Amino acid sequence: MKRRISIPMVIFLVVTAMFIGTQYNNLISGDTIYEQMKKFTEVISLTERYYVEEVDSKELVENAVKGMLNSLDPHSVYIPVDQMQRVQEEFRGSFEGIGIQFEILRDTINVVAPVSGGPSDRLGIQSGDRIVRIEGESAIGLTNDDVQSKLRGPKGTKVTVDIVRAGLTDKLQFEITRDKIPLYTVDASLMYDNETGYIRVNRYAATTYNEFMEGLDELYEQGMKRLVLDLRNNPGGYLEEAFKMADVFIPSGKKIVYTQGRNPQFNEEYRATSGSRYEDLPLIILINPGSASASEIVSGAVQDWDRGLIVGERSFGKGLVQRQFDLRDGSAFRLTTAKYFTPSGRLIQRPYDKGAEAYRMEAWHQDVDREEDEDAFEPLEADTSEQPVYYTDGGRIVYGGGGITPDVIVRSSRWTELGTRIISKNLIRLFHSHYMEREGQRLQDRYGDDLEKFRSEFTITNEHFNEFLEFVRENDVTVKEEHVEKDQAFLKSFLKSEIGRALHGDNGFYVSRLESDEQFQRAVSLFPELQRLITEEIE
């Protein structure tokens, strides 16, 4: 047999086999990726050559990439070159600039607060200062992007600003040397009362765990015996930072989160290791529909292990893990590579088959039919027949299929038309700016060194509130008595919180807001029965 098969025959058989194999693959899998790439290149080329108007081929390709990723899921996204720096700064937790929080009010840059310890703070720039010139040119009418491009810059470079300050006739001029500025992810860390600590985390970046631990340890030294961790409107971020935060509260060895992907390299499991002194600290976590991803990892682990209570509204429901891939031109894209699961096995991801816009809107309209009454810990009365059922370590029922459902549901307050118009027109900030021009020094002298004194003693008087309402009317907002009666508590809280921020930074802002925060107040009221509620098996 071997003698009968010639070399030409062998070559013929190999080529024939390769051809048949190629055709077979095409039959069972359709066009190959190479054929699809040829099709894409052909479309781009013909469009560039024959379209009725001149086209930007770079823009066409970027739009095609965006469309491709949008067709996969709502969280696989393209990041253009011009957005990469800001994205990197947010996750890195720092940028280089002059170090101010600012807001544009009626075309003028208002300093909300200097970043503590930053170059502006060291020079004495204050809350309420108005920047009217930058490098000798008018700063009136600039956009947020304009301001950032003019004030940010490499560390060590200088920029000159002219400032108008309340009570002074002449403008002040500052030459500011730019420096590295931290982007804090912990908005507030404070003692609400003699026993209750409060920490608010706005996202999970590279610095979050260190910021959180610094605040937690300081509160412990001040006598904290219980903690409210506020993750409302926290969209997530680094999974690793969320794992480390949960590890602080979860006993060693217990699973915190695990991920599963089509590619096994993305399958991971995270277990608690720390053995920290906070593993028995009474804990309540606040969430709402703006709480997503990493926030849900922390909340889900705490709930599954009956380690604390979850209070508020159902979370967003983002259980997809993205990995960022950098491209040669400086852009990047984030691709969903895995799904994450809570310790009990719950997939928190909500369905997104109706499209990205519906997916995002539905999170804020999730309705759970549970009354805010004595039966708040009974199983949900909503139709959960299609939701998978899971159990916490203590036997309580929890549901998968979309977000973290709180143990106690407390819906956020709804404002009337009056409150909505006031907020949308930024009238509280505008009024505050005028008020502090007149009263700022007096308030600073009395409350500037004592946050607790400000919290307990300062109130918005009727005279102050009526002055504000008159200011609202002057800005073409109709003021109805029935609306004033309903919105008065939250409006007074907002007014006080802005004064608190001017005197004590973000801690002063949040300690004032918490006084009328129904979700927070309900959380604090649950502490006396916390241990019974999280260990009692529900039949």
Q: Any idea how many domains?
A: 3
Q: Give the CATH class of the largest domain.
A: Alpha Beta
What amount of the residues lies in strands? 15-25%
Regions with little confidence, pLDDT below 50 for 5+ residues: 10-16, 22-30, 368-383
CATH homologous group name of the largest domain:
2-enoyl-CoA Hydratase, Chain A, domain 1
Count of runs of 4 or more consecutive helical residues? 17
Q: In the CATH scheme, what's the topology name of the largest domain? A: 2-enoyl-CoA Hydratase, Chain A, domain 1
How would you characterize the largest beta sheet? 6 strands, antiparallel
Radius of gyration: 28 Å
CATH second-level architecture of the largest domain? Alpha-Beta Complex
What is the count of β-strands? 21
Quaternary structure classification? single chain
Shape: globular
State the secondary-structure class.
alpha+beta
Overall average residue pLDDT: 86
Kindly state the percentage of residues in helix. Answer: 40-55%
Rounded to the nearest angstrom, the distance between the terminal CA atoms is 79 Å
How would you summarize the topology of this molecule?
Blueprint: H1 7-29, H2 33-50, H3 57-70, E1 77-79, H4 81-92, E2 94-97, E3 100-105, E4 108-114, H5 119-123, E5 130-134, E6 137-138, H6 144-151, E7 158-164, E8 172-177, E9 179-182, E10 186-191, E11 196-201, H7 208-221, E12 226-230, H8 239-249, E13 255-260, E14 268-271, E15 283-287, H9 294-304, E16 309-312, E17 320-326, E18 332-341, H10 356-362, E19 389-391, E20 397-399, E21 408-409, H11 417-424, H12 427-447, H13 451-457, H14 462-474, H15 481-513, H16 518-526, H17 530-535
Helix pairs in contact: 7-8, 8-9, 12-15
